[in-house]
Write a structure and sequence with these properties.
This protein is α+β, with helices and mostly antiparallel strands. It is built from ten helices and eleven strands. It is 29% helix and 16% strand. The longest helix is centred in the middle third of the chain and has 20 residues, at 133-152. The chain starts with 16 loop residues before the first strand and ends in a 22-residue tail after the last helix. The structure holds adenosine-5'-triphosphate.
């Protein structure tokens, strides 16, 4: 995607729609309110730039989507979902990138996001090879707390992976990229749908086409295309495995072979993988989504996961107040 110039001139009157919680809620924003700096990320549908607000000097990550690309790829829905999900999460104090406002010009759509200065979790895993157990435990705890908040609002992410988990300036975790998210009724999301022959009409109507990233996609998204929050719990298991071992559990030369491995549950634990972590990952990577640990939990917290021995010692009420352990 083409980078916008350092101070792109809007080609038409900007159409700004600020998020409700922001102080500049009434101000119409345009690309001229920002100085665009380095490119900080690239996705299938967007390019993300570091940008500085010329009025207050604050740095943001601005996600820029080319309209013609979105229209050509039929991804309007993707943009709407991302905006809706981020707006729904704007009141949650921790665990998510914040959407400050959106605006557009003739060619592009802009999402003004909080800047997660320390980048992708993947980069940190790759830098050290794999995390020490206490580090993996801490980030798994932050991820679980974020999943709880997200699921309580009825949002299933469906593309959780270490590239979409960012670290802010204080090294706390923030989930990003809600383009493939599914927004459901918060009550409905807690009733794990069945799959296969027993599907009701209502469940069938929720069936979807494959979304996500091959290595982290759950069997039900591949097989039955059923929407369930347990798909995020599957990805959670893959991410815990990856933080501790350095690589995701299901890896193969092609996307097709990766899918085969997922459907056959063909993965192994490396020697020395800690027993409690292994037990938790085994309880998350379960083919039948309704039998995954947490899938049956009825409240807004995943108590069965919180109480698993892997998380022994985690003070769930104060995770976000802690200084994260040094990554090593
Ligand atoms: P995908 O191809 O995964 O669907 P996308 O086009 O939806 O990607 P994002 O995943 O949202 O784009 O962003 C691409 C990359 O940009 C991220 O992986 C991350 O490295 C970087 N990025 C996105 N948002 C931020 C942010 N708020 N702060 C810092 N970096 C960010």
């Amino acid at each position: 995607m083409q980078a916008p110039p350092a101070s792109p001139a809007p080609t038409s009157a900007p159409n700004s729609s600020p998020a409700p919680s922001q102080s500049f809620r009434t101000a119409k924003r345009s690309s001229q309110d920002y100085i665009f700096g380095k490119l900080i990320g690239d996705g299938c549908y967007s390019t993300v730039f570091l940008a500085k607000d010329i009025h207050i000097g604050k740095e943001y990550a601005i996600k820029v989507c080319e309209k013609h690309h979105i229209i050509r790829k039929k991804k309007r829905e993707y943009i709407k979902r991302e905006k809706d999900a981020l707006n729904m999460l704007s009141s949650v104090p921790h665990g998510f990138v914040k959407l400050f406002c959106t605006f557009q010009d003739e060619e592009r759509l802009y999402f003004v996001l909080s800047y997660a200065k320390n980048g992708e979790l993947l980069k940190h895993i790759n830098n050290v090879g794999s995390f020490e157990l206490n580090v993996a435990k801490f980030y798994a705890a932050e991820l679980l707390l974020a999943l709880e908040k997200m699921h309580a609002k009825g949002i299933i992410h469906r593309d959780l992976k270490p590239e979409n988990i960012l670290l802010d300036e204080n090294m706390h975790l923030q989930i990003a990229d809600f383009g493939t998210a599914k927004i459901m009724d918060p009550e409905e999301i807690r009733c794990a749908p069945s799959s296969g022959e027993n599907d009701t009409q209502n469940e069938r109507s929720r069936k979807i086409s494959f979304v996500g990233t091959p290595q982290y996609v759950s069997p039900e998204l591949l097989h039955d295309c059923v929407d369930t929050r347990a798909s995020d719990l599957w990805a959670f298991g893959c991410i815990i495995y990856q933080m501790i071992s350095g690589l995701p559990p299901f890896r193969a030369a092609t996307e097709f072979l990766t899918f085969q491995k997922i459907l056959k549950m063909d993965y192994e634990f490396p020697e020395g993988f800690p027993a409690d972590a292994k037990d938790l990952v085994e309880k998350l990577l379960v083919l039948d989504h309704s039998k995954r640990i947490g899938a049956d939990d009825k409240g807004t917290t995943y108590d069965s996961i919180r109480n698993h021995p892997f998380f022994l010692g985690i003070d769930w009420d104060h995770v976000w107040d802690q200084t994260p352990p040094t990554i090593c």
